[in-house]
């Protein structure tokens, strides 16, 4: 009798039991038997709470490689998440700080297992953040063209202020420019020059360009020039004959002009001035140098004689 009842129960509810079996198999597939994957992900370090008076002075690795294992669905989600490794530096002090990259410190979703972390440690060199003024010294080579000398060389700016790790800034007292080539230049110029920086400062502030203002001065020769003729003052109607008819001039003349001028008297113009005494036949002699474009003006020191007599 009992066997008949059991057979009747199974025969009446076979569809329900088949459905239950299918649901159980599905749950097992999605939960117990879901594919597990291994994946290597790169996770950046996130430095937090570093005191304002401190700075990380060394070049350190800014991310770690983590091999994780877990269900395919979670592994795929990790790829779309911005996961980082937080490093709290609130209690940091100057010196070497070793950051341990352990699995527990990585904020991964539950169900994900960390298999390996590379590197296991990262060393940060903590230094005091300081500010320092550096005077810049120009470095030159060569000489200007013949007839010129370097009058001045000024830099703009003459100094710079750098903010950075104290240990790096303390190694330098002054900065220098790259070489400024003055060989053969014949005019004042402004050059764009790089600062010559060591590797640490170059990484800190990058390529830095300043202006070098080079001012040249013509070499002047002091010469005594005889036989400068006195011309007549046509506007005043002054006589054209004087005694003596020429004067001697002592003056500074650009060196290059001295070398190319066959007769130096050609560089001066002498004219009679206004008589001091109307009853006298003597007049002062006014002498000026010829204007030479592109050259320094001629500087006159003495004129001998400084007065001449009008010849009737």
Summarize the structure in short.
The protein is of the alpha+beta class and 312 residues long. It is 17% helix and 47% strand. The protein has helices spanning 2-12, 14-32, 72-78, 166-169, 199-205, 255-260, and strands at residues 36-48, 54-56, 63-71, 85-88, 95-100, 113-118, 121-141, 148-156, 159-165, 174-181, 189-196, 209-218, 220-229, 242-243, 246-254, 268-272, 282-289, 299-304, 307-310.
Task: Compute the number of structural domains.
Answer: 3
Q: Provide mean pLDDT, rounded.
A: 87
The number of strands is 19
Strand content: over 45%
Q: What is the highest CATH level, the class of the largest domain? A: Mainly Beta
Order of helices and strands: HHEEEHEEEEEEHEEHEEEEHEEEE
Give helix % range.
10-25%
Radius of gyration: 46 Å
End-to-end Cα distance: 174 Å
Instruction: Describe the global form.
Output: rod-shaped
Secondary structure class reads alpha+beta
What is the CATH topology assignment of the largest domain? RNA Polymerase Alpha Subunit, Chain A, domain 2
Report the total helices. 6
Poorly predicted regions are none
Largest sheet entry: 8 strands, mixed
- CATH architecture assignment of the largest domain: Beta Complex
What can you see in these coordinates?
The chain is of the alpha+beta class and 312 residues long. The chain folds into three domains: 36-128, Beta Complex (RNA Polymerase Alpha Subunit, Chain A, domain 2); 129-218, YbbR-like domain (RNA Polymerase Alpha Subunit, Chain A, domain 2); 220-310, RNA Polymerase Alpha Subunit, Chain A, domain 2 (Beta Complex). The chain has six helices and 19 strands. It has helices at residues 2-12, 14-32, 72-78, 166-169, 199-205, 255-260, and strands spanning 36-48, 54-56, 63-71, 85-88, 95-100, 113-118, 121-141, 148-156, 159-165, 174-181, 189-196, 209-218, 220-229, 242-243, 246-254, 268-272, 282-289, 299-304, 307-310. It starts with a helix and ends with a strand. The mean pLDDT is 87.
């Amino acid at each position: 009798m009992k066997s008949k009842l059991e057979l009747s129960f199974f025969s009446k509810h076979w569809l329900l039991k088949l459905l239950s079996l299918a649901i159980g198999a599905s749950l097992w597939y999605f939960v117990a038997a879901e594919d597990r994957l291994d994946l290597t992900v790169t996770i950046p370090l996130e430095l937090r709470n570093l005191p304002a008076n401190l700075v990380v002075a060394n070049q350190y690795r800014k991310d770690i490689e983590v091999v994780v294992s877990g269900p395919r669905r979670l592994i795929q989600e990790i790829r779309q998440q911005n996961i980082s490794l937080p490093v709290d530096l609130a209690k940091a002090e100057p010196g070497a700080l070793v950051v341990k990259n352990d699995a527990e410190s990585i904020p991964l979703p539950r169900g994900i297992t960390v298999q390996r972390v590379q590197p296991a440690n990262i060393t940060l060199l903590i230094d005091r953040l300081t500010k320092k003024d550096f005077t810049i010294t120009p470095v030159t080579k060569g000489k200007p063209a013949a007839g010129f000398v370097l009058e001045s060389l000024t830099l703009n700016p003459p100094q710079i202020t750098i903010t950075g790790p104290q240990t790096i800034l303390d190694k330098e007292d002054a900065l220098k420019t790259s070489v400024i080539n003055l060989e053969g230049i014949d005019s004042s110029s402004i050059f764009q020059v790089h600062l010559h920086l060591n590797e640490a400062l170059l990484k800190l502030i990058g390529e830095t360009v300043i202006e070098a203002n080079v001012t040249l001065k013509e070499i002047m020769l002091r010469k005594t020039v005889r036989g400068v003729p006195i011309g007549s003052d046509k506007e005043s109607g002054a006589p054209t004959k004087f005694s003596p008819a020429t004067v001697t001039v002592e003056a500074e003349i650009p060196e290059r002009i001295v070398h190319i001028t066959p007769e130096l008297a050609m560089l001066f113009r002498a004219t009679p001035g206004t008589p001091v005494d109307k009853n006298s036949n003597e007049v002062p002699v006014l002498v000026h140098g010829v204007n030479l474009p592109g050259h320094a003006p001629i500087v006159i020191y003495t004129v001998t004689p400084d007065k001449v007599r009008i010849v009737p």
